[in-house]
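Researcher: Re-running this chain for the archive, since the previous output was lost when a drive failed. Same request as before.
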Amino acid sequence: MVEVRYLFDPLCGWCYGAAPMLDRLRADPGIDLTLMPTGLFAGDGARAMDPGFAAYAWANDQRIAALTGLPFTEAYRARVLTGAARFDSGPSTLALTAVRLTEPRREIDALKAIQRARYVDGVDTSVIEAVGAVLVAEGLREAAALLAGQDAALAEACRARIAAAAVEMQRFWLRGVPALLAGGGQTWRPIRSDALFGTPANLFEAIEPGRARRGV
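Model: Regenerated structure tokens:
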């Protein structure tokens, strides 16, 4: 069993683009996958969605779409990249932590649902109530209730997860997300993030060198 840590932010377009490979990792019986939200675009990393930043985001999104085939719709462009929306992953990160505390095996499902809501359906996922509605639609009602209550324990759990991710980012000199770490125990190493956008065989070979030759 190889342990893999996935460092990400739910508002990172490239993390959305990595979703198909994340599914591959989750489905593999030889990999123990852990999500580590970094809070990159939360707190001090959040910002207003001004026209200049919206144009930059849309151009970057088109690059991701061309590489991965995943959709970034006009609904997203019209409802999220314009108007009063903020670029703030705090609510989504809090929501994912609520899922982690209630139904941890479904955290990837929740992440994908939040990403689809934003990039496909045009939902402003910087709003707590909107993200809560996504959780309800996914059948994650306990997590949605926890998110709505915003109690101190949830906030502390979220801060702890972000702090743990920050330690890993600093330890391995990681400059952005998505990022992967592979290993176990005291032995960990970073995996090149572009492996998330190549072939599954190359990704698994990067995580576990020699795997292809062993036929596993």
